[in-house]
Design a protein that fits this description.
heterodimer, A: alpha+beta, six-stranded mixed β-barrel, 17% strand, elongated, B: alpha/beta, Rossmann fold, six-stranded mixed sheet, four-stranded antiparallel sheet, globular
Chain lengths: 389, 239
């Protein structure tokens, strides 16, 4: 009977394609928007990914990583004195202006790290030596900066390369390395230099220390060390793992801050809901029309002795089949979009496994609703009516 | 084979209630074609639906193959129809997206026969109705008469003891009508099988072994027909 059901479905080409198109659209919209949203939220934690230290210690009112409440210079020593801390280094993080060759300005995310240990340095270099950062007036830039800071971003020959120079707040900066880095939520490229040099690049204020990065002693977890730091110093210490259900993880705290304090989730969520509703509307309407078109045949099957249960199963198989096909095509299209996003570096795109699973369940729910409408209509059709046709 | 006694059926409520079947009595025997004739709206299709087990009656008894239909549950009636009755509908009701052989095999699939065996059996019976070579085609490629022969094959593929036909020649010309009715005669000659045909097409009356005339929900007369000559299709409508 499955073969019979599928032949009836595929035989009505127009409605079959319409059903698949509706579910494709719903899948694409749900998965793509949810993934762009996740990608955007991931970008908000870019500094955490790019610096990579296990513990971030910040001023006690700081709630997310892009918020800076400067700390006292003496806080570094206080944190080092905590027995649970193996090492602790100063970190500068802030947005600064770069003056390009042609006199124009671009904003960058400037990171200042300890010169001796280079703790907080980028994880992957693609050119140059990290150790050259200790030389005077030197910086390491990310791949985005090679185009963003060039005089002609469209001309590959004008890309910033090792040895090129520009100015950060009128102070010379010479490129000694290029690295891979996650893009920032603010859109600006990342530039690393030493902590002392970062303070030179930055307009002076009373307190300049953004955060202290630290690592736990052997035998202690980051969470235990962070708790000890908080108890001892009164500062706020976050672990740096990944988004999850731990409120003491800086990634989690940062993402939830943006979820609660910006309109971003509402905007994306609205689009996802609209995608679902449109999918329901198209699928239910088209499938109902399909059942109506085939009502006399289904009625004849009823008269010939097919039970309501088996007829319902046929409709369910038809609905789930278009659901699987539409979902598959939608996911394929989203993957194509993802490849483009990854190759171009934007828009942000991150698809944890939960997104396609949730989208699959949503699409199957749409199909169940569509099948239910058809099953109800067929249930009202008495087999004797086929004789009256 | 079929014994209908004092059957009553109405539709609607209150002032709009219509008494469609009034104390109807009818018998159909194995090996015979019983025709139920009468003007449009006289209740023939309603009676046929009741005998087929697709419509519940209000009172009376319908006994088909020693089964009292009025006492059977909905599920039992469904299973009974699948096993014991072959249907030929007025508008054929062939599924356009299936091949001829796949359409014919549907009653076997309903009974749980595998699709391979159903296809084999379908092709055998299509040979008998003269459509063997066309088993792979879609119904829309066939003429009206050929489609009706496919419908007959579908009604017979699972070897039901009772075949029920609703206006089988309404959509056919004289030539195709004659071919179809000759097939019905062959079908009805089996001692284990009865054929009931509802029709108002008087071109085919001569094929009946028994004619029951209905009007206004009542059986007016039941007449046995002696076939002194070979039954033939009347090529003009005699009113």
């Amino acid at each position: 009977m499955i073969g019979l059901a599928l032949k009836m479905l595929f035989g009505d080409t127009a409605k079959y394609l319409m059903l698949v198109a509706g579910l494709f659209f719903a899948t694409f919209l749900i998965v793509q928007q949810a993934s762009v949203f996740c990608g955007l939220m991931r970008w908000t934690t870019a500094t955490l990914k790019n610096v990579g230290a296990p513990i971030f210690v910040v001023e006690e009112r700081v709630e997310q990583v892009n918020e800076t409440n400067p700390m006292r210079d003496t806080d570094v020593a206080r944190i080092r004195s905590v027995s649970a801390v193996r090492w602790a280094m100063p970190l500068y993080s802030g947005i600064q202006r770069v003056r390009l060759e042609d006199g124009s300005f671009k904003t960058v995310q400037l990171i200042g790290i300890d010169a001796a240990s280079l703790a907080g340095a980028p994880g992957r270099m693609v050119a140059g030596n990290l150790e050259d950062l200790r030389l005077p007036n030197t910086v390491v830039i990310d791949e985005l900066a090679t185009t963003r800071l060039s005089s002609n971003p469209r001309d590959p020959s004008k890309k910033i390369k090792i040895g090129d120079q520009f100015e950060i707040n009128d102070v010379e900066a010479r490129v000694v390395g290029i690295c891979k880095a996650m893009r920032s939520f603010t859109g600006g490229p990342y530039i690393w230099t030493t902590y002392e040099r970062a303070l030179q690049y930055t307009p002076t204020s009373r307190k300049m220390l953004t955060a202290v990065i630290a690592a736990p002693v052997e035998g202690m977890t980051s969470g235990q060390a962070a708790a000890e730091i908080e108890r001892t110093t009164g500062l706020r210490a976050y672990v740096n793992r990944d988004f999850g259900d731990n409120p003491k993880d800086f990634n989690t705290a940062t993402v939830w801050w943006y979820v609660k304090n910006t309109g971003i989730p509402i905007s994306f969520g609205t689009t996802v809901v609209i995608g679902f509703i449109v999918g329901v509307a198209i699928a239910c309407q088209t499938f109902y029309a399909f059942v109506l078109d085939n009502l006399k045949h289904l009625g004849a099957l009823k008269a010939m002795g097919m039970s309501n249960f088996r007829l319902s199963m046929m409709l369910l198989v038809q609905a789930l089949t278009v659901g699987i096909i539409g979902f598959g095509l939608g996911l394929l299209a989203t993957s194509g979009f993802a490849m483009g996003a990854i190759n171009n570096g934007q828009p942000p795109f991150y698809m944890p496994w939960q997104i396609p699973v949730a989208a699959f369940l949503a699409v199957q729910l749409i199909c169940m609703l569509a099948a239910l409408m058809g099953i109800i209509r067929l249930g009202l059709y008495e087999p004797a009516m086929v004789f009256r046709a | 084979m079929v014994d209908v006694r004092a059957v009553e059926k109405s539709f609607g409520e209150g002032a709009s209630r219509i008494h469609v079947l009034k104390q109807v009595n009818l018998q159909a025997r194995s090996g015979e074609i019983t025709m139920l004739v009468g003007p449009s709206g006289c209740g023939k299709t309603t009676l046929l639906s009741a005998i087929a087990g697709t419509l519940r009656i209000e009172s009376g008894e319908i006994n088909v193959l020693n089964n009292s239909l009025e006492k059977m549950s909905g599920h039992a009636l469904t299973r009974f129809r699948a096993k014991s009755i072959g249907f030929i509908f007025q508008q054929f009701n062939l599924i356009p997206t299936l091949t001829v052989a796949e359409n014919v095999g549907i009653p076997l699939l309903i009974q749980g026969v595998s699709s391979g065996k159903a296809l084999t059996r379908s092709r055998e019976i299509l040979e008998k109705v003269g459509l063997g070579p066309r088993w792979k085609e879609r119904p829309n490629k066939l003429s009206g008469g050929e489609q009706q022969r496919v419908a007959i094959a579908r009604a017979l593929v699972h070897e039901p003891p009772l075949v029920i036909c609703d206006e089988p020649t309404a959509a056919l010309d004289a030539q195709n009508g004659e071919i179809v009715l000759d097939l019905f005669r062959q079908v009805a000659r089996s001692p284990e099988r009865a054929v009931i045909i509802v029709t108002h097409d008087n071109r085919i009356f001569s094929y009946a072994d028994r004619i029951a005339r209905m009007d206004d929900g009542e059986i007016l007369e039941v007449r046995e027909q002696l076939h002194t000559e070979k039954p033939h299709f009347v090529h003009e409508h005699a009113h």
